[in-house]
Amino acid sequence: xxxxxxxxxxxxxxxxxxxxxxxxxxxxxxxxxxxxxxxxxxxxxxxxxxxxxxxxxxxxxxxxxxxxxxxxxxxxxxxxxxxxxxxxxxxxxxxxxxxxxxxxxxxxxxxxxxxxxxxxxxxxxxxxxxxxxxxxxxxxxxxxxxxxxxxxxxxxxxxxxxxxxxxxxxxxxxxxxxxxxxxxxxxxxxxxxxxxxxxxxxxxxxxxxxxxxxxxxxxxxxxxxxxxxxxxxxxxxxxxxxxxxxxxxxxxxxxxxxxxxxxxxxxxxxxxxxxxxxxxxxxxxxxxxxxxxxxxxxxxxxxxxxxxxxxxxxxxxxxxxxxxxxxxxxxxxxxxxxxxxxxxxxxxxxxxxxxxxxxxxxxxxxxxxxxxxxxxxxxxxxxxxxxxxxxxxxxxxxxxxxxxxxxxxxxxxxxxxxxxxxxxxxxxxxxxxxxxxxxxxxxxxxxxxxxxxxxxxxxxxxxxxxxxxxxxxxxxxxxxxxxxxxxxxxxxxxxxxxxxxxxxxxxxxxxxxxxxxxxxxxxxxxxxxxxxxxxxxxxxxxxxxxxxxxxxxxxxxxxxxxxxxxxxxxxxxxxxxxxxxxxxxxxxxxxxxxxxxxxxxxxxxxxxxxxxxxxxxxxxxxxxxxxxxxxxxxxxxxxxxxxxxxxxxxxxxxxxxxxxxxxxxxxxxxxxxxxxxxxxxxxxxxxxxxxxxxxxxxxxxxxxxxxxxxxxxxxxxxxxxxxxxxxxxxxxxxxxxxxxxxxxxxxxxxxxxxxxxxxxxxxxxxxxxxxxxxxxxxxxxxxxxxxxxxxxxxxxxxxxxxxxxxxxxxxxxx
Length: 814
Hints:
With 814 residues, the protein is of the alpha+beta class. It has 28 helices and 32 strands. Helix 5 (169-187) packs antiparallel against helix 6 (198-212) and helix 6 packs antiparallel against helix 8.
């Protein structure tokens, strides 16, 4: 028996030792019988063992994710693709399971997830899989893939003017034909016989059944061929039974006076109500993607680019990096870039959330999608296409809205057995009522009611509709959620840990006092300025700004070095003029934290040291003698909403802590002002993740909020990482939630939206389960007419989506 094989495209190999390393890593994976790596083609071929699944089918004993993890742990990467596809033809949760099952059967698929609300398929596949492979698998499952430009849930499309192509046309036409069949039922309430002759009933019902209802037959037949069931199959079987029963009764009675009641109105009304429900459902689902469409609308379609010395109008997607783009007043900036010429005010409200226009001048960066309000700008493109800030935001929102929450796994399992159970209940209803009670007519009608009311649409929409509405609302308020797992983690958080500088404070410290212990304040500032002029640390910039204001001249510095978490050092005195050299000599200068000074063996004074701010010490080492030269005290203002943020979080029952590299006195002053529950001072960058772990070991679920490279390990360690978008790319990539504005108040907003979203998920699932738990028995026992069942089924889906859309009413507290 042949063994299944998988090929992985490996990235990062350089020599034969890499080959051996990867082969050993792969062979350690359980279920791998052999692994061979070809250096020339950069391909790993893995042969897998098989196991019997219990159903007679042999399956591979190791999955692709295990193999990829093994390669990554070995220090290399596997070439994979992340794609999205718009799926046409899905109607309920069982369709989701059917598409996912078809994709998972394909070799080379890592993950596949279908969102019923957005009608999107997200796949992660190996480089050996093509888009055509995915499309073919979807089509074989009975559905079709739409091109991205006609994905109705994301990109608005111009509807064709043809009447028969309008989405409301089938609903209207079906309703017009059905009303004459249903209206006479109201006459029965007043003992009036307004029922049409059988021929006219059949004439009106037939086009509704087989023309407007053809979509149910087509999709139901596709489900049968795939060996599964779906909503369309239930509707097709149910309405066909009512239509067929009417034909039987009509043909069985030749005397018009004794003509029994026919049920053409039931079959037609059910189809019309289902069509109406699906149309309203589609309209409601589009509202869940309002935020995404708003972002898409920010993308300019054209750009004015300087090529061959002339300004040319081209598609914005064709602009290349480093090209110069001209933006006139009233136009949107087509790319991320740097202003080369001009000055203006830009409206960045829909990107950053800031309602006040931002002044921009030469050298400033601009973000694609913002609106130029006045002056003409010439901009050098730095990020274009999918690399632009706006594109990355859209991609993140798309991933979040298409993702599945962990709770969805339960729903998927229920949906996979739901249709067969419903068919069994309907058959039992028919047989019990018809066989044992001798009333086959009512047996058929009760079975039809069971089939119609048992649509799993509400069940399938309960979770994704809430997630789409929740993540869309969050995006509108400036909170970007990476995936649904982040939402689930966010609702459980009971401790939020903030980094101080740039997160709770402005991140723009100023030098408030300096005290020379040896020499003058002027020489102290000159030494500090000379040492810090090349440093990017916020405290260094404060020293530089103060020195520039006082027109201090910098001295040459040799062997400059940043000591991570401690400070900076360098040699001053080399190649100086003779008179300076005689005064200073060659000396190694240190500037940094109290902890570092103590490590260097320097005794720090305990008196006259300012408290409440950040302190840096300046020391020198000359002729193996280390001495203290002076100290600098800095202050950094709290952000305007920092106090309010901490108060809101604590009112929500969440504790708040702070990590900072500042001294204990400075940290304590901030902690007291904010009324924090805990704080850690003099924390080295590499130790931040350790403190997060300590909190977790105490049983707390921790959210970490930061903005710097040194926060990335802590963001990754935390149960939930939240990064300020104004921070570094490393921090943003390590976080699960990105705050688009540098405002701490977005933290409680994000946590509140997560809790509200999961509250909606629970409500939707409860009502979806209760609806079927109550509706199916009532239908089986004859308490629900098929028409009422059809209306109830349509209302259940609308209720679920409408309940989710209530999340869009969420507003920030002022």
